[in-house]
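Q: Structure for this?
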Amino acid sequence: MLLIPCPWCGPRDEVEFRYGGQAGVAHPADPDALDDTGWGEYLFVRGNPKGWFAERWAHVHGCRRWFNVVRHTVTHEIRPEPDR
Amino acid sequence: VTAAPRQPMRRPRGGRIDRSSTLAFAFDGGDYLGHPGDTLASALLANGVRTLARSVTLGRPRGVYAAGAEDPCALVAVESGPAAAPLRRATEVELYAGLRARGLAGKGRLDTSGVDPGGAPSDALDGARYDRAYLTCEVLVVGGGPAGLAAAHAAGRTGARVVLCEAGPELGGGLLGCRARLDGEPATAWVDRVAASLAALGEVRVMTRTTAVGYYDHNEVVAVQRRTEHLGAGAPRRLSRQRLWHIRAGRVVLATGAHERGLVFTDNDRPGIMLASAARTYVNRYGVLPGRRAAVFAANDSAYAAALDLLDAGIEIAAVVDVRAEPRPARPPGDWPSLLRERGVEVCRGWVVAGTEGPDELTAVRVTSRDGGDRARTFECDLLAVSGGWNPAVHLFSQSQGRLGYDERLAAFVPQVSAQAERSAGAARGRFGTAAAIEDGFAAGDEAARLAGFPDTGRLDRHHLPRDDAPASEVHAGEAPAGEAGAAYWAVPAAAPGLAARQFVDLARDVTVADLDRATGTGMRAI
């Protein structure tokens, strides 16, 4: 089980969190302009890298806030998201 | 009317059992007596029961082979009380009054007696409660032997929160089963002192009967604590039977010790054949004679210490058979073989056990010279103590994703590259010998506390490191002097082609040398 650094509460067990999937997936600027394929890609297609992966977590059993981390999908090493 | 002699193989005194209290138990329909402190295996040996189970595929009779979690043969179903379980090792089941068990043929059966097919679970199902708990600490020490105790002591004195997990019911590990001495007194006195000082440290938590079973990401170790199984019918119902601990540790010290490995020869699975360390553990810790007349088959010197323990317990030693040739030039007097020869024990250097005899249980061993000469001798015995060397117990280390390396000197795999915030200590990383394990444990505990944020104040210098009083340096597998061949010795070649099918490599799964030959013959590798 992972130890996830909540930026507000500090490191906590994975059981306290809910996973939010890939970080940085922007809502389309003009959804009406998308065809079905483009809309499907926005809804369902996500990155699945072997390596560093930016993802969202919600501290649902703590401060209830959302935040981003960068996790290595092989070693599970976790870093805070770099400033963008 | 005089009652039949009870516990014929029980020593009159000695051991860590309580003879003032007697526990009645049943095994395979027979009624027996044992004492608090016994395991089911030691109590059965005390009652002269040597065949406990059958092997899984071949149905061969099997007895007690080891004295702890590493036993491959003595599988039983416990059928009584709150400790009922379809498959346990007799070497790990603590005896309680009213225990009822039977031997198994290699595998258990799921207990479906309380299950109504297609219906709701009934009350006849296991009524015990099981719970879980979470724990956070700076330093987790796995294993309560000399290295683990020293590590917990060193880390605990810094004020760090320390958790020490020990699978057995009492602290001490291998020291409970041997007669090691430290600073001129029994090593168990050192254990008692360290245990007392750990109990006095408010931030140190010692958990016995707690087996670390998993090592997961970010230093999470999962451990099972058996809370009521040893209490029998007297177990309070308010207590959960088992508790699953999720322990998150800043640093982990793995002091899991080492397991002795057997040697492969024809019919090496008969009841009466056991590891040398197990034989001395039954003698010293449980006050049980695992046989009346023993032979010892050794590829390293720790078997000689076991032979001396058996001898002092009144067991006749037919011979010590050592695969290593007599060293030339001869070592100075006072080495292990001389200690036994002075006591009138025949030590056959450069010889091997070619086979064993008996209808089922061991009655004799056949011995030949290792170089294949046609000399052969037979020694009658009912116990064969085997020691092929020692393997560090690296299971948790491997699960933590650490990488192993092969140590030629020890002829064993040892932890090499850690993947998590962890370090192995003592025999678990090949530091054999009591004093060496304690020193390594102290260093590991100190380092773990420092890395977890408890600053080093030169504490190690102020620790008293006890000195080992072993009669001669205990030389293990590969540590034999240069030129002394045979330290890394695995198997005695089969004398005839058909016999390889009776040379057991894996006693738990009935895998023989013939099976491995067949597998490698078809091109398989790394089996």
